[in-house]
Amino acid sequence: MTALEDYFNSNLDSHADVLARTKAECVETFSHMLAGWVAAIRDGNKIVFFGNGGSASDAQHLATEMSVKLKDDRAPIAGLALTTDTSALTAIGNDYGFDYLFERQVRALGKPGDIAVGISTSGNSENVNRALVAAAEIGMVPMGLTGRDGGKMAPLCDPALIIPSDITAHIQEMHITLGHMLIGALEIELGLVSNS
Fold it and tell me: Pairing state of beta strands 79-81 and 115-119?
């Protein structure tokens, strides 16, 4: 076996292990999160996503899947990413500091009954966790996508969907996979698409 083949196989084996552990350990939390999303959207509320780096990309990706579609044509679902307004991000960062990037936007744009979904592979991103605290204070439901041991994020969320891995790339891979699954299930639960 070549070094490349060994690298290829060991990485896929590692990913498969995380997938199997996620399947075994996360279904109850997945169901809890989905129920919250369904209730919020049925009540006319929105789901707000935020995170840093790759998690910022996931926030933007998932919000777009909600407002456009996952697969089949359907009515839009209210999803918003707090990672896309460069004027807000740079003004908040400049005037208040990086730790306030999402908290300020949550307080400006969130309302009671909305869902706040913080995304952090470690669970220890200060700006994400500050936003989750702010979300709870204004009556939003704080939820999280994280990994490792859940970090400081886990106790702030109801629920925190914790990927059972210490490998950042695998945590991110599962976040987008489960994010797609949550949106797909949300579409079905809301009666926007058929379960086929």
Answer: unpaired
What are phi and psi for residue 123, nearest 5 degrees? 80, 5
3-state secondary structure of 142: strand
* Tokens representing residue 119 in the block: 């995304």
pLDDT range class, residue 180, cuts 50, 70, 90: very high
Q: Is the pLDDT of residue 1 over 90?
A: no
Predicted model pTM: 0.96
CA nearest to 126, candidates 51, 186, 178: 51
The dihedral built from the CA positions of residue 67, 64, 143 and 17, taken in this order, carries a sign that is positive
Q: Note the residue count of the chain.
A: 196
Contact partners, residue 32, CB within 8 Å, separation at least 6: 159
**Amino acid letter, 15:** H
Name beta bridge partners: 117.
49, 143
Per-residue pLDDT tens digits for 22-74: 999 999 999 999 999 999 999 999 999 999 999 999 999 999 999 999 989 99
- φ, ψ of residue 186 to 5 degrees: the values are -60, -45
